[in-house]
Design goal:
The complex is a heterodimer of chains A (398) and B (623). Chain A is mostly helical. Classes of the chains: A mainly alpha (398), B alpha+beta (623).
């Protein structure tokens, strides 16, 4: 604020008559964040266009057309959200939370079944999966509850309350059944609580409980004869520990994905890719799109994608620190955790070091709801960033 | 502003800063792990995964080559191929669940009249040799089964039907012992040099000329390497390399199917175990060679049933797989006298004019050797001695040569008791008893006495310890008849390619040459001619009415406790023979009783002329 004119080559953007960029609010946004998100989405569309050329007979651009549509919708949504002061969501937390739980529950009533689970609504032009946008809603609502209840009850009561609030929608999603997304809900909940200041000792207890839960679910319950997970879920979760040659096994998919990525070597195989082109890798446009990138574009392409995610995460984390209020800090923390967790689990699954959980790769995996939700999340981050910048300048949003 | 609970700015909160740092640290660690793992997979182990990916997407299919056909010397087909449908199971496409897999295999076992255990062990064995290659469960499945499987395809994932070539024998059992059979290459054979480049489940000749001439008949399987997708389905434009199969070449045998059929039916008519061989005396080409009992080679194109195994292998008396013409081990009876005569003449024991008194028997020490049937022919020279088959005459020769080794020397020269060089597996060398042989046995305590005069007297008339077979006798007779060439007997004559061009002619060099005096040869052949076609000859009543002049010798081998074995060796036409035929019939009695009529039937077929029914008035003396 005390910078002299001589040190600044450019005039203060808002010192003069506001230009187009000023009016659009662009100078207050995080350009790196938006650009990395857009580049990732573009990379995803490009990969889809090459990898799914022959997937739908007669319409080579089936997946690309849909993905591009959602990406554009997402971009628009991102911009609109960026221009809204996110702090209003804190007041709407109860409404948001209710909407989240109801929409996720409605899937049980109106949802379309795909491969044995009801996750999405079938709308006239597209199907919509509420649990995807629900990730963002959970971060917004839960952060509100944390801020709001910061002085109510004992520390232990608060921890239990936050946990219950976070795990209720997670449980609903788990029942759809969608194990992967419910795990993301759990990650968001824990991250918001962590940034929100829940005691370290409480986290230690939660951690111990998690370990116990996993042991019971994966080892004890099936042995006793009351399995909690469905057979395929259990198999997927544990099969990465024992890769298999048998196409009938869950470990086979992962093994094939690893072969695909490894065979890409440094520079990739381009159109000579076979693993992901000849159906050896299943779900190559959704859960295993990273394997397609790894095989087609090699280490250079895959590392570029990982770098973009790292950039995205870094910018999200930076926004956590920049936020003008605690609510923004918690929301940004939840979103950063959502991104990090999804990238880790999905890429880890492709690389054979994490179990198969069916979590999409943000912005890259084919799936309208996921792309839309991620762009909206980036929009909220932008909003936090923008409000912080504006408050630094002593000005507030319109 | 609505920062009610949030008066402190977050930046000023050191607890928050620590938590954000921890958060960032976790993120950093996660990205580090992902980067390292990615680098490890792609850069460090990339080569291995690239190879695995390439291996994943290509399948090699071997396209079997049709085996060459086998024809007789006139081009008549003895073996060719027919296509057959083979039921194969692709283990990669079987249901992954053990229960479903088991159920499908059980159902297949039932459909193919097999048992689940046999199907499993079959798959286990083949998969050990060639992992993940389709396993042939059964060849020659009927069309009804193929239709059934096609209509119920979804119930039998991984089951496929493939056309394969199977040996076909238009003439049935004709020449079974010569032709042999084909079968899947064994684990041991895979390691042999001559089968280099072959793979498990490839078929090779396992016996007979199929074995000897396998490399000509086999052909070269084609290879198609195609790109497949995850389901193993060929992809569009997926053919990578294609090498068409090269069919096997045609093998032409020296066998004359007319002679062969006559010989086999002559043996079959008598219904007793035996063997025959008919050979060109000049070049060793075998025109006919057979053994009774015989077998139908078609049985080897399918898995053997237990009753087939019992009748083919487990029956030591009949032993239909044994080729008695080349693997038999028999004394020869009087047919050996040709060799005794050659030895005596060449060593000066007798001349063609030497007379020996045949008083019906001779006594050596305490042993008395008699003529068969107790006959006594009085003073004889060589020619009438052969004609009448005087045993005493030849006993005397054997006695005179008992410790000179001359008889053994000449028998050895003429090929008795040694390998013949025949191009068929399973031929026996036989045994020529010599002084050294018996003395060595005696020293080792394996026999009760050393070599004695009696042994040589026995050998001079083809009795005792002698072990030989029709092929060796035919070679010995041929050598005398052709003036001293010990031919190499062979059934393979030439190899033609698919276009009919001659690739290879087989004309094996003679084993050796023996000097044979023309006078001796003439005298011996005259004796044999008179034996066959002059009154008083031993086989006159058989050959007396045959329009072609021949020279033949009967033989009656004593094989106590069994009845006598009948022999006949005949050269035709006399005096310049082209062919020799040797026949033996176990338990066939006197030579003239069964072997000679069988030989006559073979010669009738060869010359296309029948004997006039009338037999000679005097049966002559049996010999």
């Amino acid at each position: 604020m005390y910078a002299t004119r001589t040190r600044r080559a450019r005039p203060e953007p808002f010192a003069v008559r506001p230009g187009i960029a000023e009016r659009l609010g662009l100078p207050y946004m995080d350009g790196t964040l938006s650009i990395s998100a857009v580049v990732l989405a573009a990379f995803g569309v490009f990969t889809l266009s090459q990898a799914t050329l022959h997937d739908v007979p007669g319409s080579p651009h089936y997946f690309v057309d849909r993905q591009v549509t959602y990406a554009i919708l997402g971009l628009v949504g991102m911009y609109l959200l960026a221009r809204v002061d996110y702090s209003r969501f804190r007041e709407l937390r109860v409404g948001i939370y209710t909407f989240l739980c109801v929409s996720v529950s409605l899937v049980f009533v109106f949802g379309v079944a795909a491969r044995g689970s009801r996750r999405a609504f079938e709308l006239p032009f597209f199907s919509f999966q509420p649990s995807e946008v629900g990730k963002l809603l959970l971060a917004l609502a839960l952060a509100g509850f944390v801020i709001d209840g910061a002085r109510r009850g004992s520390a232990r009561q608060r921890t239990v309350r936050y946990l219950c609030l976070g795990l209720a929608p997670a449980a609903l999603v788990f029942l759809q059944p969608d194990l992967g997304t419910s795990l993301v809900y759990g990650a968001i909940t824990l991250a918001v609580m962590f940034v929100g200041g829940v005691r370290w000792t409480h986290f230690a207890v939660i951690g111990a409980a998690l370990v116990a839960l996993v042991t019971i679910v994966l080892a004890v319950a099936p042995a006793v004869g009351t399995p909690v997970l469905k057979g395929y879920q259990q198999e997927r979760l544990t099969s990465f520990l024992r890769p298999s040659e048998d196409p009938g096994d869950a470990g086979y998919q992962q093994n094939q994905a690893m072969i695909a990525i490894g065979s890409g070597q440094t520079t990739g195989r381009g159109d000579r890719a076979t693993q992901t082109r000849l159906d050896f890798v299943p779900e190559r446009h959704t859960d295993f799109i990273f394997a397609v990138i790894g095989e087609r574009y090699g280490f250079m392409g895959a590392a570029l994608v990982l770098s973009l995610y790292a950039l995205l995460f870094w910018r999200a984390l930076r926004i956590v620190t920049l936020s003008k209020n605690s609510y923004g800090t918690l929301v940004a923390g939840g979103i950063a955790a959502m991104l990090l967790f999804q990238v880790f689990v999905n890429v880890g699954m492709n690389l054979g070091i994490m179990p198969i959980t069916g979590i999409p790769l943000p912005l890259l995996s084919y799936g309208g709801s996921s792309v839309l939700a991620t762009f909206l999340a980036v929009g909220v981050l932008q909003s936090i960033h923008m409000q912080a910048r504006l408050s630094q300048k002593g000005r507030f949003a319109w | 502003m609505y920062l009610r609970s949030d008066e402190r700015g977050p930046q000023r909160n050191t607890g928050l800063a620590l938590r954000i740092a921890v958060f960032g640290g976790v993120g950093l660690a996660i990205f580090a792990v992902l980067f390292f793992r990615l680098w490890f997979l792609q850069v460090i182990s990339g080569d291995r995964y690239r190879a695995e990916a390439n291996n994943n997407r290509t399948r090699e299919f071997r396209v079997g080559a049709p085996r060459g056909s086998i024809v007789d010397r006139n081009g008549e087909v003895l073996v060719d191929n027919r296509t057959s449908l083979a039921l194969r199971v692709n283990p990669r496409k079987l249901p992954p669940r053990p229960a479903a897999r088991r159920a499908e295999l059980a159902q297949l076992a039932e459909l193919t009249h097999s048992s689940l255990r046999r199907v499993r062990s079959l798959m286990h064995e083949q998969l050990k040799l060639a992992p993940s290659a389709p396993v042939t469960l059964r060849r020659d499945v009927g069309h009804y089964l193929v239709y059934y499987l096609q209509e119920n395809q979804e119930r039998f994932p991984g089951v496929e039907v493939q056309r394969v070539f199977v040996r076909h024998y238009p003439r049935g059992a004709l020449g079974a012992h010569i032709l042999g059979n084909v079968g899947e290459i064994s684990e041991r054979q895979l390691k042999e040099r001559r089968y280099r480049g072959l793979e498990p489940s490839d078929e090779i000749g396992q016996d007979g000329v199929e074995d000897t001439y396998d490399r000509f008949l086999r052909g070269r399987p084609g290879v198609t390497r195609i790109q497949v997708d995850a389901l193993g389905q060929p992809t569009r434009r997926g053919r990578l390399v294609s090498q068409p199969p090269v069919p096997g070449n045609e093998l032409r045998l020296s066998i004359d199917s007319g002679v062969q059929a006559a010989g086999e039916s002559a043996l079959g008519l008598r219904g007793l175990p035996g063997g025959f061989v008919t050979m060109d005396v000049h070049n060793g080409e075998i025109l006919g060679l057979g053994s009774f009992p015989t077998f139908d080679p078609t049985v080897f194109t399918k898995p053997l049933t237990q009753s087939q195994v019992d009748s083919l292998i487990r029956d030591p008396e009949a032993a239909p797989l044994t080729d008695r013409a080349i693997a038999g081990l028999y004394p020869t009876g009087s047919t050996f006298k040709l060799i005794t005569a050659m030895a005596a003449l060449n060593t000066g024991v007798i001349t063609t004019g030497t007379t020996i008194e045949d008083g019906g028997s001779i006594t050596v020490g305490s042993q008395r050797f008699q003529n068969a049937g107790g006959a006594a022919y009085g003073p004889l020279t060589l020619v009438p001695a052969l004609q009448k088959s005087s045993d005493v005459f030849f006993y005397t020769l054997g006695q005179n040569m008992w410790d000179t080794g001359a008889l053994q020397h000449w028998a050895h020269l003429l090929g008795i008791g040694r390998p013949t060089g025949l191009d068929l597996p399973g031929a026996a060398s036989g045994l020529l008893p010599t002084q050294r042989w018996r003395n060595r046995l005696f020293k080792r305590g394996e026999t009760d006495r050393p070599w004695s005069v009696g042994d040589n007297i026995q050998l001079a008339t083809g009795q005792g310890d002698l072990q030989t077979n029709p092929l060796q006798m035919a070679i010995a007779y041929a050598t005398v008849a052709n003036g001293g060439t010990v031919v190499t007997p062979h059934v393979g004559m030439q190899v033609d390619d698919a276009a009919g061009r001659v690739l290879r002619e087989f004309d094996p060099k003679p084993r050796r040459h023996v000097h044979i005096d023309r006078g001796y040869r003439a005298a011996i052949l005259e004796g044999l001619h008179l034996a066959a076609q002059a009154g008083g000859g031993t086989s006159y009543h058989v050959f007396g009415g045959f329009p072609i002049p021949v020279a033949g010798k009967t033989g009656t081998a004593q094989r106590p406790p069994n009845p006598d074995q009948s022999w006949y060796v005949v050269l035709a036409p006399y005096p310049n023979p082209r062919i020799v035929t040797a026949v033996t019939i176990e338990q066939g009695g006197f030579g003239a009783d069964s072997a000679a009529p069988a030989a006559l039937e073979i010669l009738e077929a060869y010359f296309g002329k029948r004997a006039s029914g009338e037999a000679g008035p005097n049966g002559g003396s049996p010999g």
